[in-house]
């Protein structure tokens, strides 16, 4: 299988490291049972019929394995994958170039597909449905529209915001896979595999502790493994124990639940500036001096998942568990919560 990157940035060192830990086959993947089953059936059925897999939409928070699964689908089908992202495709011509280069069964992976420009998105519709495109060579009076037939390809779209996709685009995917946060058991298995691949010595309790402090996310557990290994190499004999894990993560200011400064900053802004809420995301972002997008993509999904925050029609609200965890005295509002939903 060949991988081609089109219009993407060079890969930084940290990503190269993470890429080396990516499972290559569906059977090597840990967790995501439902998604794996859906993809297994789609791949096997397509193989049996000698057809390309239906277009697949993968959605879920960052670092759960969308890019990994896209690559795996291409490997399982024995096809080439071309990798690009929504914001990188600026003009119809860019997409035209990508589409016409695809061979039968090839996979086109568009990361951050919710950020595709509207004109590009509309240009994609006939390509997905009928495997053809109407391309206008020049705008204005001299413009000529040429109808191109494409080979039958598979589009894999990845997004952290399925809600931002237009219904028209969403409906053109035959398969919609929703990735969930991983359990501590699953993350322990993932980090055990990574430690083996990186030849890091670690006892099982240490691996489990790392998993507990990784926000349900494989990318985070792998990144923390690297940091803890550094710590163990410098301050110990290179072996990971519960003590080295705890000491290293404390230095990184990652707490017992895996929350970092950004997570805590968000909660404290909500609790202290907005009396626990309800507060709008724009207001919280402004208070923190942070991008709203980062908070919505990275911070909130996990806090919602663990029940520290809820979304109400009037804004975000901090829950008692969050107050307990951060040892902040709850405001009187908590007892009035029932009124929030009226
Ligand atoms: N099921 C899995 N089993 C083992 N490791 C995994 C699994 N899924 C992901 N990983 C690891 O987690 C890392 C992050 O995964 P990946 O880059 O695919 O996430 P992503 O969902 O594409 O994130 P983003 O939204 O930021 O692009 C990978 O490099 C891989 O090492
Ligand atoms: Mg990705």
Rg over C-alpha atoms, rounded to the nearest angstrom: 23 Å
| Classification by helices and strands | alpha/beta
| Small ligands present | adenosine-5'-triphosphate, magnesium ion
Give the neighbour order of strands across the main sheet. 1-3-4-7-2-8
Main sheet properties: 6 strands, parallel
CATH fold topology of the largest domain: Rossmann fold
Mind telling me which CATH architecture of the largest domain this is?
A: 3-Layer(aba) Sandwich
Proportion in β-strands: 5-15%
Average residue-wise pLDDT: 92
DSSP strand tally: 10
Relevant CATH superfamily of the largest domain: P-loop containing nucleotide triphosphate hydrolases
Distance between the termini: 56 Å
Unreliable parts: none
Number of helices: 14
Indicate the percent of residues in helices.
Answer: 40-55%
The helix/strand order is EHHEHEHEHEEEHEHHHHHHHEEH
How many domains comprise the coordinates?
3
CATH class of the largest domain: Alpha Beta
Structure description:
The strands form three sheets. The chain has a six-stranded parallel beta sheet, covered by helices on one side. Strands 5-6 form a two-stranded antiparallel sheet. Strands 9-10 form a two-stranded antiparallel sheet. The chain is globular. The longest helix has 18 residues, at about 220-235. The chain has helices at about 15-20, 35-50, 65-75, 90-100, 120-130, 165-170, 185-195, 205-210, 220-235, 240-250, 260-275, 280-290, 290-305, 320-325; strands at about 5, 55-60, 80-85, 105-110, 130-135, 145-150, 155-160, 175-180, 310, 315-320. It has 14 helices and ten strands. The model has no long low-confidence stretch (mean pLDDT about 90). About 35% of the residues are buried. With about 350 residues, it is α/β, with parallel strands linked by helices. The chain folds into three domains: about 5-180, Rossmann fold; about 185-250, Helicase, Ruva Protein, domain 3 (Orthogonal Bundle); about 260-340, Arc Repressor Mutant, subunit A. Magnesium ion binds near residues 111 and 158.
